Amino acid sequence: MKIIDAHVHFSNIGSFHDTANRLSQLSYSYEGLLQEWKENNVVAGVAMGVTETIHNNFPDYESQTPMGLDLADSVPRNLVHCVGINPFKMDERNKRELELDLQKSNVVGIKIYLGYYPFYAYDEVYTPVYQLAAKYQVPVVFHTGDTYSERGLLKYSHPLTLDEVAVNYRDINFVMAHFGDPWVLDGAEVVYKNRNMFADLSGLIVGTEAEINRHRKTRFLNHLLHALDYCDHYEKLMFGTDWPLISTGSYITFIKEIIPEKYHQAVFFDTALKVFPKLRGFLPKN
Q1: pLDDT in tens, 73-82
Q2: 3-282: what fold?
Q3: In what side-by-side order are the strands of the sheet with 174-177?
Q4: Entry pTM
């Protein structure tokens, strides 16, 4: 089965390097990504644009909107991205740069880092972002749930805050990254209720295969399985790893275990193309 990873990282962020070295034990590099994709039949991916001006300083209030990918000098051809938004950098120049980026073929969406920046999804600071998303018909991806940095503020990343945006902007497709974890039942309700709200299943576990095995033996999965059943819209969910936080192969196996087999084609491939239609132009020809 061909797979699309709908949530990876390819930015020179200190915490990503630290996690790759210390927890997931991966090669966080151009070559490392391509090797993992080759081994696991991943044919394309969507990276979340983010930058930092000082090492290990994310969330970085000085990063310019739009935030892109800067892990390596070049980007794999089959890796597209969602440009990142720093709400503190949304002057007219930043807005013009954002619009120019949205006209590029390899920019397939917009990423808003709720919790890392102290604004709710429905804050008016994001109104120009939603206007541009509607104009260029690209989705908006929200970070939701736990923040990887202790400097984050969780009240801004709760998935229930997305409901108001989904209602007010029915002509935009939205993606709830990480399914709102740990508030996955609340996230499931927002996805269930709103036809324009999707979710990715990235970042639910961080570490190595051993970490996945540890969670298989505990009650860790109970709340997640409950939420998946409650949502009852597997066709609105997408596979994503949050690489380099976990190895691609291990996470594929994990997601296959918790998603009914009849929905694997949708979760691992079809839904990503529905949400990110510009991605079609970057798929292999054979």
Answers
A1: 999 999 999 9
A2: TIM Barrel (3.20.20)
A3: 3-8, 42-48, 79-85, 107-112, 140-143, 174-177, 197-200, 237-238
A4: 0.97
